[in-house]
Amino acid sequence: MNNIRNFVIISHVDHGKSTLADRFLELTGAIDKREMREQYLDQMELEQEKGITIKLQPIRLKYGEYILNLIDTPGHVDFAYEVSRSMAAVEGAILLVDATKGIQAQTLANLRLAQQQGLKIIPAVNKIDVASADVVGAEKEIASLVPANKVFRISAKTGEGVKELLQAVVNDIPAPSSGGKETKALIFDSRYDAFLGVVAYVRLKGGELKAGDKLRFIAQKTSGVAKEVGYVIPKETPFPVISDGEIGYVATGIKDAGVVRIGDTITLVSTPSASALKGYTQPKPVVFVSFYPQNTDDFDVLKDAVNKLHLNDPSFVSEPEAHEALGRGFRCGFLGVLHSEIIAERIQREFSVPLVISRPSVEFSVTDKKGKELSIKTAVDWPDPTQIESIKEPWAQVEVITPASFYPKALQLLEQIEGTQKDIVYLSEKTVQLVYEAPLREIIIDFYDKLKSVTQGMASMDYEIIDMRKGDLVKLEVLIAGEIQEAFSKVVPKVSAYQEGKTLVAKLKEVLPAQQFSVALQAVVGGKVLARETIGSRRRDVTASLYGGDVTRKNKLLDKQKKGKKELKAKGRVIIPPKVFLDVFRS
Predict the structure, then answer these.
(1) Which fold has domain 365-470?
(2) Which whole-number Å values give the CA distances from 100 to 131, 342, 458, 499, in the listed order?
(3) I want to staple 25 with a disulfide (CB 3.0 to 4.6 A). Which of 30, 177, 328, 545 is the partner?
């Protein structure tokens, strides 16, 4: 165990974690040069396309007489739960900072997580080869946050300084401490395999695991048999045994994806008295989105996809729901909007299920006149306004880090989101940190895109939920031909209900197909119409067959058509194609 080092690489998104991992793979000879490609540990096609790490990825490296267990982690705020799970399996972390950008929002968030776990932190400044790099400035920012004897200067792209950094991992990160002879393994990730069942990635904190061992899952109170154990080097490779202090995988043979839970402890059936290791706090979803299959026959495939994705991402939750126009689907909870977009993209790519996706919303707390507290995740569940006593909505603390030159524009944007300024900190002469408190609904939709736009992509942000606060909110409903369409309903601030309603009916007029009769589109709050648009009826020229004669013949046909359209308007019903929902939700 003295020769084992378990560590993670943490940083803000796009600061070079995966590129540094590539250099470690090359230095240790883990990958044949012919097989090497950029961001090797980003295995998913989606990760390679977007240039970001989405899933944590463990790998075992051999460096001289040392075994290095590296976990490459995501950098985006929506995947912070992946980072926290990785940290529970290691003793140290490399904190990587881009010399061209300096400390950014998620750098601070990940650093706090590492410090809370008590990890040994090795700071490093990356991209020193870039002409615009401010290495000294980045070092000063790091020194103000992390007490360290040395800040390593590296270029993950060229390999400069990487060998010295890897040697520091060996010298500075402590070896794992022994957990004793009783077998205990913490599950920090998992995936599903059609032949091996659920494959759990584990950190051994006592004893050992061998193929054929009878397993017991303490929290789930279930059992299984280890069909295979081994290490990821870089592909899953079977070994006879994995031992105390090591990171590896266990193929459980269990085909029920819900049985093996991340954060659970694996022990042996032969040690029934073994107690569970400290797992993870179950993350609470803050953004809710509905998924419906465009083809209603694909519901079972969607259900299977949701179950399998939940296996290796416990922060993603779902519950079935149904809609008259869209059929059966799922109301899903996520840690952020990007998280929801990634899951939706994976479902459509990996399981070939085209989706209709609703607009993101947050969870509200409504207290009725009888004092009963209701949890509202969708506008469909919003109670009658006359029965509402009070409404609360989630608020978040938003941290924006921006170059000082863009400080006025970033401040102006933050002033527009109904927020409250809490602090302004100059991290350096060139970098400012703005701390605000604001309603979560103001942040999750397009605030990040607006921030990147006004700061030319130079600012970064992080946020965390702080509490629930009173809000003046109403349910905005849409009537199409006098009939409420709940799929378009949304909860909005009372002050912006008119503008929201006007925008929504205008979009519907643009995308809804014309009918044989005129269709009224109305935005309504509490029975009061705030905005209206009308889609004119499709009209056939009923006089085209006439070749002459008195004008009364023409008028007679037109009156008959008018009467028919009037009857259609009274009795007719508008069928809304799924594409309309898709277009409106995307807008």
Answers:
(1) Alpha-Beta Plaits (3.30.70)
(2) 9, 28, 10, 41
(3) 30
